[in-house]
Amino acid sequence: MLSLLLLIPIIGSLLLLTIQEDSLENKIKMKNLTLITMLINFLISIYVWLEFDSSSSEYQFVYEFIELNYCHFNIGIDGISLYFLLLTTFVSPIAVLSNYNNINNNLKYFLISFLLLEALQIGVFIVLDLLLFYIFFESVLPVLFLIIIVYGSGEARIRSALLLFLYTLAGSLFMLLAILQIYSYVGSTDFQIISLSEINLDTQKILWLGFFLAFAVKTPLWPLTGWLYRAHADSPLAGSILLAATILKFATYGYLRVLINFLPDATNYFSPLIQTIAIITLIYASLATIIQQDTKALIAYSSIAHMSVVILGIFSNTIQGIEGGILLALAHGFVSPALFICVGGVIYDRIGTRIINYVRGLVTYMPVFSILFLIFTLSNTGIPLTLNFLGEQLSLIGIWERNPIIAALGATGIVLSAAYSIYLYNRISYGIYSPHLKPVKDISRREFNLLITLLIPTVLLGIFPKVILDGLHFSVSTLLYNI
């Protein structure tokens, strides 16, 4: 079943190659084929979720392909990877729909790129081999690099693409060295074999630093944050959505799957260090967010701040903290794409600028949009009845049990997130409508459906988190280590 999730986007890409991009009718066919392919994948992932046994912490739907001599192709999921898989298949069609009317040149290769991105992202979350994890982890970089250069809108998009590529590639080289060291030490890169192996503390520390550097760039953590806001600002909207919703979650998944699972002693040793870095990142990113004038850069910096709280929860060594970190990561995967659609799609398509000072009073002509924008803005601050609220609270409660000072500093992110979120909404939505702007239309049916689709899980899962938590309990409990 999981192998289908990898094969279907590839089959869809091959079918796209057979269609000529020479008429409007064929372009519509290509868009529809892409969306149908992604929706089939989403339905399969829903079926996997329904068939998943939440009372077990073992890997399920395991499939092995043993024909490859150089690599152990082994896939499967547990309670942790299941929800990241669902997030990927849920957000991918939304990303393509967000640019449904904007991309007309080289449309075929744009759609193929996002089908391949979906397959590669799914691979990160379902492979059970450390070398394959590295391959899928890195393979999204060339695709993103080309998407930003070819379809990006910023004048500095080549520089932004290079920063994205070089930052993440340089950090991941240390992960590759750590994987090779594990292979020489254990004799395998299979997840289950590594988890059963005894690695002494000194070796764990070296391996931990190698993996951590790769994941810190991807999170990103201070001082390795310079690439993210540039990549968001110059990327097409669909690229920004995937980057915020799922690609930033590679690091979250890596912390859970590799650092805590395979190197628990080193994780315990370095926990004060990573908690300190997370607090510095949280405060730095929040203060940097407040002074941003580009709306997409502002949302990008807010992503860094929220991911810092995720880190605090994940490294709390408590069930509440780890589950809270996962919930907040999933909530960020819904709310951040919605905010990018609001500022980088709806507003930018109508006005042609993302500079906050040039836009005000949109509620005059866009009342429906202003209501939805307000709801997502408040969700971003973590108000009750949203998944963001539960994720932040559980993360901070979890870290409070280990270090109340770190938890108190982490709670400052709630106040700061309210400051920059309300500032953005108030400046754009209220005040006298700018005399330099022409009257604009309210959101279209397509834009409304995209935002509602992201709003429903944000609110429903915030009210009924048991839907997710039931599948997490057993898998998360295996990550706890004795101090």
From TrEMBL:
It is an enzyme of class 7 (translocase). InterPro entries: NADH_Q_OxRdtase_chainM/4, NADH_UbQ_OxRdtase, ND/Mrp_TM. It is found in: Membrane; Mitochondrion membrane. Residues 129-415 form the NADH:quinone oxidoreductase/Mrp antiporter transmembrane domain. One of its GO terms (biological process) is electron transport coupled proton transport. GO terms for molecular function: NADH dehydrogenase (ubiquinone) activity; NADH dehydrogenase activity; ubiquinone binding. The chain crosses the membrane at residues 6-21, 33-50, 80-97, 109-128, 134-152, 164-186, 206-229, 241-263, 269-291, 298-319, 325-348, 360-385, 405-426, 447-469. Its main location: membrane. GO terms for cellular component: mitochondrial membrane. The keyword Transferase does not apply. It is a multi-pass membrane protein. It catalyses: a ubiquinone + NADH + 5 H(+)(in) = a ubiquinol + NAD(+) + 4 H(+)(out). Keywords: Electron transport, Membrane, Mitochondrion, NAD, Respiratory chain, Transmembrane, Transmembrane helix, Transport, Ubiquinone. Its EC number is 7.1.1.2. PANTHER family: NADH-UBIQUINONE OXIDOREDUCTASE CHAIN 4. Belongs to the complex I subunit 4 family. Core subunit of the mitochondrial membrane respiratory chain NADH dehydrogenase (Complex I) that is believed to belong to the minimal assembly required for catalysis. Complex I functions in the transfer of electrons from NADH to the respiratory chain. The immediate electron acceptor for the enzyme is believed to be ubiquinone. This is NADH-ubiquinone oxidoreductase chain 4. It comes from Lactifluus piperatus.
